[in-house]
Predict the structure.
Amino acid sequence: MAAFAVALALFMFEGCQVRHEPEEPSATILSTDLSLCMDPDDWFDTWLFLKSEHLSPAGIVLADYTTDSVAVLTKELAMIAGKPDIPVVKGVQGKLRREGDSLAAPDFHEGAEFILETMRNARGKVRLIALGSLRNEALAYSMDPDLFRRKAERVVFVSVPVHGEFATNLERDTLAASTIYNSGVSVMSIPALKQKLTGPMEERVARTDTPVCRFLTERLRVWREWKTANEQGFLERTQQLMGMGKNLWSLPVFIPENEWDDYGIVCYPCNGATDPVMRAKYPYDPDGKDLMMVQWNEKAVLKHALDIILEK
Ligand SMILES: [Ca+2]
């Protein structure tokens, strides 16, 4: 916390707000650990991604614990979003390991291959958003580092906490994370901090009779039912019982950069390449290639998300 406060104070003092020349990517790939029983927040993120024209959504990689039924549901959501042809591919389902100079991974390699194929075919640069581990991005880098460095606009990674809590997506595969942080490509780290879709907001979604609202409401129902049966007390402990709302984690990812000021979004430059696996503190570094998102207006970001879910 102290390191963070110092970094922030330094940043404010020097008035070095990062100036963003919003150069939108020519294509963006979302990799996300969608699931029926694990945290269903990624279904909300996937909807925001599919509706984010400014990102030019090019495909979805199913990360970490994919099943065929998840793939079918993802295609259904894409259909609802009016993007029936967007590729949905399976990604790596286990830990990466070193093999000589490169990385080896268990099934599936389609996600990494899809990232490289998209980079080869894209006219401009490609943004990669990772809301699960960085396995698919790291495997793609290992398969063709030159192409990856040349064509990746940025990797946006939701995981690293500002205050040093457990960083699930990073610690799920530290080899994947350190590969990406040391790849030379700019990484924007977004702390996985709770943005609460409140009980009344969730009720509004449930009462709205549209395909996407029915879809998301059903994902929450299935998940709560499974949690209740298998992890006693979890929903109560995390304040996510029916009526209490749902914790979401990645919403700032989907705010267009030219609107950051309206959402109170502030990033500071840093260099995560030094040691990402140590729950890095990411000290302020004016010459750093990476960015750390340190501030946003939670209410404004939530309203943005809710408007897109309610299709207002
Ligand atoms: Ca996730």
